[in-house]
Design brief:
With about 110 residues, the protein is mostly helical. It has three helices and two strands; from the N terminus they run αααββ. α2 (about 40-50) crosses α3. It is elongated and about 70 Å long.
């Protein structure tokens, strides 16, 4: 292997990506599952801030963090298939979105 030093993945870039991931975790904990940054969003934000980094480099770093063992993983959920006669039962799955509007948290 070569002895070259990574010039693009600096400590500052790592801190920024770690911050994005921490914010994603906070959003999930607050019930804001749909308001997470994707890897592409992270890369674009870094580009806007002047970091000259490739999208694949961001993906590799995030993938390495995701592969790291997590302290507490949720148990797997079970799906139970149910069968009903046509017209016997009707179910709705209503979606819920949590937003901050004017500094107030609202569930819509």
């Amino acid at each position: 292997s070569s002895g070259r030093v990574r010039r693009v993945m600096t400590d500052e870039v790592r801190r920024r990506i770690d911050g994005f991931i921490a914010r994603n975790r906070e959003n999930v904990a607050a019930g804001l599952h749909k308001q997470q940054m994707r890897k592409l969003d992270m890369w674009r934000r870094l580009q806007d801030e002047g970091a000259r980094i490739a999208y694949s480099t961001v993906c590799q770093y995030v993938r390495a963090l995701e592969a790291a063992p997590k302290p507490q993983e949720k148990p797997a959920k079970a799906y139970i298939r149910q069968y009903y006669e046509p017209g016997f039962r009707c179910e709705f799955d209503w979606g819920v979105l949590t937003l901050w509007i004017g500094g107030v948290r609202r569930r819509l």
